[in-house]
Design a protein that fits this description.
This is MFS transporter. With 510 residues, the chain is α+β, with helices and mostly antiparallel strands. It is 70% helix and 10% strand. It contains 21 helices and five strands. Strands 1, 2, 3, 4 and 5 form a five-stranded antiparallel β-sheet that branches. A hairpin with a 2-residue loop joins strand 3 and strand 4. The two termini are 21 Å apart.
Length: 510
């Protein structure tokens, strides 16, 4: 095959693999991007904080089961082939996402709503557990020798583009609907739209050929009859599975989710930045940073995977707290000069002819153009103050609308975090593929990747949010930084293990 023909083939493979992977990540990210809205739809509304934490826990549940998906679909991929296995994961993911958009709210069917969401999230996690290993293996087994980092890095961009497209779809939907329409039924649109994208991807993947490396192994009778036993029952191979997890994947997972998910949750729930503004500035930062996946994938072909990935982890460990401190202070109203007196509006909630609660909306404007609004509900009973959980009033919502100057500053700070992501994530597909032989590659690489991302990475939003909430309750003046100790600690441990035990040379297995 000529060089031109080879490049044409590999681009076709990347296109087909990337399209499906992008859609699967879109499906997965829609839930995380709409977590704040979903917390009001599928969980009891009497405790907004508990509802939000429950939504994050349900989101994390999809990550927790990813290793089981890696085992189940990885085994199938090493026995029946890469192509048909990750076609199945695509259909399962798309169907689960579509059905989440169809579930009635908590007010309609009660506790059945969060139960159904949890089941579908678990199916999503199982499907994603089989998707990445298939796509990465499939592309790597088509790539020319010495160029795996470059070609597999294109697959790495799909996760970020999946998040970017999910944010774009949400923003477009909100643009054409009123706030009331989006809150009532418009939030379902991004979920339902996924079924059409999945169908297109299915048609593309259906015409793909099997991986040449797997086809050759199958023709020669060298495929595994028991990939699980050969992957994890063999002490020598198990050593590399553990090294892949604790020396690379878990650090990559927390760096990835800090930059793309925790930053979003942090701006919305800790900094109180307007949701639409957060989605737009995160989308811009991701778009500007995505080409660097390919840059660092290419660089890893030249200098080795190890130090590209570990450098990203090390820099993140030392940079996270200064970055998030700067982010917080950028929108800290204590640093801004108020120029307009507070505007206060009052509304009363009347039930059965009696004023039950009164709602106050306070708006402030600052010299740099920042505006802030706070909605407070005062508890009443028969027109008199009522104590609920030790308080007669509670803040329902805080929203800060930032200026263009602050917006670009935050985009720059998020972009730096995206660069950390591209350093650790760009080379990792090639790194994992090169650690394991063809006959057990799908199974062996999928498990450490999805434990690193699904367990260590996926739990990050819930764990970090809990740490911030707990620190705030205990009166810590820098409560807003406490959630970072989780990714900092995991990335630091991973760096030490990787630096000591990972070789900078390929394992060169076949």
């Amino acid at each position: 095959m000529s060089e031109t023909a080879s490049k044409k083939t590999i681009w076709k493979v990347i296109g087909a693999s990337s399209m499906g992977t992008l859609i699967e990540w879109y499906d997965f990210f829609i839930f995380g991007s709409l977590a704040v809205v979903l917390s009001t739809k599928f969980f009891p509304s009497d405790n907004p904080t508990a509802a939000f934490l429950s939504t994050l826990a349900t989101f994390a549940a999809g990550f927790v089961v990813r290793p089981f998906g890696a085992l189940f679909f990885g085994r199938l991929g090493d026995i029946i082939g890469r192509k048909y296995t990750f076609m199945a994961t695509l259909i399962l993911m798309g169907g689960a996402t579509f059905l989440i958009g169809c579930i009635p709210s908590y007010e309609t069917i009660g506790f059945l709503a969060p139960l159904l969401v949890l089941v579908l999230r678990l199916l999503q996690g199982l499907a994603l557990g089989g998707e990445y290993g298939g796509a990465a293996t499939y592309v790597a087994e088509h790539a020319p020798e010495g160029q795996r980092g470059y070609w597999t890095s294109w697959i790495q961009t799909t996760a970020t583009f999946g998040l970017f497209i999910s944010l774009l779809v949400i923003l477009v939907t909100k643009t054409f609907l009123t706030d009331e329409q989006f809150d009532l039924w418009g939030w379902r649109i991004p979920f339902i739209l996924s079924i059409f994208m999945v169908y297109v991807s299915y048609l593309i993947r259906k015409n793909m050929d099997e991986s040449p490396a797997f086809k050759k192994a199958k023709d020669e009778g060298k495929t595994s009859t028991n990939p699980l036993k050969e992957s994890f029952g063999n002490k020598y191979n198990m050593k590399f599975v553990l090294l892949a997890l604790f020396g690379a994947a878990m650090g990559q997972g927390v760096v990835w989710y800090t930059g793309q998910f925790y930053s979003m949750s942090y701006m919305k729930t800790v900094m109180n930045v307007e949701s639409d503004q957060v989605d737009s500035l995160l989308g811009v930062a991701l778009l500007l940073g995505t080409p660097f996946f390919v840059v660092f994938g290419w660089l890893s072909d030249k200098v080795g995977r190890k130090w590209v990935m570990l450098t990203g982890m090390l820099v993140a460990v030392f940079a996270y707290r200064p970055i998030y401190e700067t982010m917080y202070q950028t929108t800290n109203l204590a640093n801004k000069q108020e120029v307009v007196e507070n505007t206060v509006r009052k509304a009363e909630i009347v039930k059965n002819g009696t004023v039950n609660d009164s709602v106050y909306t306070i708006q402030q404007t600052f010299a740099d153009g920042t505006t802030y609004s706070q909605i407070t509900k005062r508890h009443l009973e028969n027109g008199k103050a009522k104590v609920v959980d030790g308080k007669i009033s509670e803040v329902i919502k805080k929203t800060t609308h930032i200026t263009n100057t602050d917006r670009w500053k935050l985009i720059g700070l998020i972009w730096i975090q995206v660069i950390f992501i591209t350093m650790v994530y760009g080379p990792i597909a090639a790194f994992l593929v090169e650690m394991f032989p063809v006959k057990i590659r799908y199974t062996s690489m999928s498990l450490p990747y999805h434990i690193g991302n699904g367990i260590f990475g996926g739990l990050l939003p819930a764990v970090s949010t809990y740490l911030v909430t707990n620190a705030k309750v205990n009166g810590d003046p820098q409560f807003y930084l406490e959630g970072l100790w989780y990714p900092i600690g995991i990335a630091a441990i991973c760096f030490i293990i990787g630096a000591i035990y990972i070789s900078n040379k390929d394992r060169n297995v076949n």
